[in-house]
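Re: Re: token formats

Sure, here are both.
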Amino acid sequence: MKKNSLNLLFVIFSLLILPACHHARHARGYAHVQNIDTTIGIKQRTQVTDKEVTRIENELKSKGVSIISVGQDYRVIIPAELVYYYQSPRLQWHSFDIVNLVVDYLKQFRTVSMRVDAYSQDKDKKRAGALSLARARTMVDYLWSQAIDTRLLYTQAHTMNRSPTACCEDLSGRGDVPTRVEITFRNAVI
């Protein structure tokens, strides 16, 4: 008899405690569905219009920057001679208007990740790889300093020997004609 009363007391006590725990969990916001971010942390961009995106694309194209879009994937291709000093990872002073325009273009989209690929060529593969990596990192550092709203921003370096678009040299004898920086991202449609 004593065992049955103890079991009954335990059942009554647990029925009183469980609703209190359930209420405390909801009061702290642990179980609210509204707190779950369904946009994966991507801000809504209300001020973005197709007209503004087209205007920036046309301005970039007039300055020598190519933009390729296939579905939701975008690739911004910036020739290295437009933004970097010759055989250097440093951005040229006069190139900041182009880079800032690229930043404005990137801010028109909702992105989760962005990849910056840099392509360089040199007779020494190690030097070309180091230059490519330094250029990619320089571009990523600048994009990050301009508050690009993306969760992942990473770099990749390529030497021109592995690139199918590599060519020899231009009319002035410079051998870095196809060197470029490519910024690849996917527009997150929500």
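Second one below.
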Amino acid sequence: MNIDNTIIYRVLNFGAKSWWASNQLRDMGKHVEARREERRNILSDLETVRSALYIPVSSALATCDSKE
């Protein structure tokens, strides 16, 4: 599966910008702090996405099967 990096960034950026704390910082006029937090959240989410991409499907299925 090949997903364009731009699409991944757009989704993560949208999620970060819609976060309530980010909106609150922007409402208070703290745009730089809001963007800093958004970037931190994007990097954290991207790390999770990258980790998920490297889990072999057979390993994930075996984990699910062992829980049943």
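The mean pLDDT is 81. The two ends are 28 Å apart (CA to CA).
- S.
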